């Protein structure tokens, strides 16, 4: 091993008689092929693997076979930054891909992690994710690329198939056919991962081993232990899905039961309303029938009243007629009594005159006449009283007849 601080020349190709100096990283002049004259310390510090493989027993010139000078020059930009006006090193996507490839090959783990961080948001094409993930042992990129190829709605193109390999394309189509539909939720995504782990088991083992060799302490790389976590998440998702399904079924059942209960309640309410309507109609019919019967009864009563009233009126008229006849008879008798009384008074007057003239027999006859006249007077008074009674009875009979007739008329009007 060279002494500390000693510079060595690093060549990207085997030395030949015609060497060419690198215009950027050669700070001394040699006459070899393309030579890079660089400090050994950065290579030793950056990778134990590189130190053991290339620097342990090498001479002043380290041969890096198979690495183009342009690619090595990109790697040196990160290992030996050149002073510029900017303190931030900016590399293009293609340059980060070169850094990732060489850092993975030589186990420069810091550079590898830095390249993965910069490339992760820049790798968008599915085939590129698979190709770069395979070459650089980044299983998450390979998994992401496979998932995208399975989930895409269109067919896998010839370009993508050529990039990932035709046999890989066939496996992906088998998985797509087994799933039967585009992937839309996390549960289906977990199912895809399980299919991929089963179908590409050997590839995942190789990628996992390669990643383990390139992983720094504290890195959370992708390994097969994540399968259990994926399955656990899938099981939890399945449980949540089943729970959601159960809740949905319960809600649907409750809604159906509520709808059925509401329907039954409405049917019962409708039936009750129909019964109430029928009862109301029956009551109306009964009331109508009762009203008709009452009207018939009133009509019969009116007719009966009319008949009775007519009979009573006839009876009253007959009674009035009888009273009139009786009154006329009494009047005739009274007139006869008055005439008889007048005659008796005349006779008494004559007898009194006769007695005054000196005839003695006239006193007896006078007393007899007085007695007869008094009796006739009493009889006349009785006849007068009876006549008054007849007049009163006639008046009462007429008033009663009028009252009965008025009451029957009021009932008829009602």
Average pLDDT level: 78
- Give the strand order, joined by hyphens, for the main sheet: 2-3-1-4
Give the N-terminus to C-terminus distance in angstroms: 144 Å
Using only C-alpha atoms, the radius of gyration works out to 73 Å
Tell me the number of strands.
Answer: 4
Class by SSE composition:
mainly alpha
Report the order of strands and helices.
EEEHHEHHHHHHHHHHH
Helicity range: over 70%
Major sheet details: 4 strands, mixed
Indicate the proportion of strand residues: under 5%
**Total DSSP helices:** 13
Shape: rod-shaped
> Would you identify the regions where 5 or more consecutive residues have pLDDT less than 50?
1-9, 11-15, 26-32
Topology:
Elements: E1 7-11, E2 19-21, E3 32-39, H1 41-46, H2 48-55, E4 61-63, H3 69-79, H4 93-106, H5 109-119, H6 126-135, H7 139-151, H8 158-164, H9 166-179, H10 186-199, H11 201-213, H12 225-356, H13 362-413
Parallel strand pairs: 1-4, 2-3
Antiparallel strand pairs: 1-3
Helix pairs in contact: 3-4, 4-5, 6-7, 6-8, 7-9, 7-10, 8-9, 9-10, 10-12, 12-13
């Amino acid at each position: 091993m060279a002494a500390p601080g000693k510079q060595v020349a690093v060549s990207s190709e085997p030395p030949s008689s015609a060497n060419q100096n690198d215009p950027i990283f050669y700070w001394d002049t040699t006459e070899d092929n393309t030579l890079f004259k660089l400090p050994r310390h950065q290579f030793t510090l950056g990778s134990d693997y590189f130190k053991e493989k290339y620097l342990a027993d090498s001479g002043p010139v380290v041969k890096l076979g198979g690495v183009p000078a342009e690619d090595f020059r990109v790697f040196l930009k990160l290992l030996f930054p050149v002073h510029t006006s900017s303190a931030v090193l900016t590399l293009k996507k293609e340059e980060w891909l070169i850094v990732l490839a060489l850092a993975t090959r030589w186990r420069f783990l810091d550079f590898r992690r830095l390249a993965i961080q910069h490339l992760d948001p820049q790798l968008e094409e599915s085939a590129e994710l698979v190709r770069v993930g395979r070459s650089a042992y980044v299983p998450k990129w390979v998994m992401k690329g496979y998932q995208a190829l399975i989930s895409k709605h269109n067919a896998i193109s010839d370009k993508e198939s050529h990039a990932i390999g035709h046999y890989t394309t066939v496996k992906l189509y088998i998985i797509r056919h087994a799933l039967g539909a585009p992937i839309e939720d996390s549960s289906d995504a977990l199912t895809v991962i399980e299919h991929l782990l089963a179908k590409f088991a050997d590839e995942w083992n190789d990628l996992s081993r390669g990643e383990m060799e390139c992983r720094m302490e504290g890195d959370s790389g992708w390994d097969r232990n994540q399968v259990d976590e994926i399955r656990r998440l899938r099981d939890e998702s399945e449980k949540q899905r089943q729970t959601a399904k159960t809740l949905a079924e319960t809600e649907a059942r409750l809604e159906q039961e509520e709808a059925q209960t509401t329907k039954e309640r409405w049917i019962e309410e409708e039936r009750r309303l129909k019964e109430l309507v029928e009862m109301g109609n029956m009551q109306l019919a009964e009331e109508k029938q009762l009203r008709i019967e009452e009207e018939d009864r009133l009509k019969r009563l009116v007719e009966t009243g009319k008949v009775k009233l007519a009979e009573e009126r006839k009876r009253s008229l007959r009674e009035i007629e009888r009273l009139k006849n009786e009154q006329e008879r009494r009047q005739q008798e009274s007139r006869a009594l008055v005439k008889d009384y007048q005659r008796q008074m005349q006779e008494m007057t004559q007898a009194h005159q006769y007695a005054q003239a000196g005839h003695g027999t006239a006193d007896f006859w006078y007393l007899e006449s007085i007695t007869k006249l008094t009796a006739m007077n009493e009889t006349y008074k009785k006849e007068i009283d009876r006549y008054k009674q007849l007049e009163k009875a006639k008046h009462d009979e007429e008033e009663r007849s009028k009252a009965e007739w008025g009451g029957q008329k009021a009932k008829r009007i009602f």
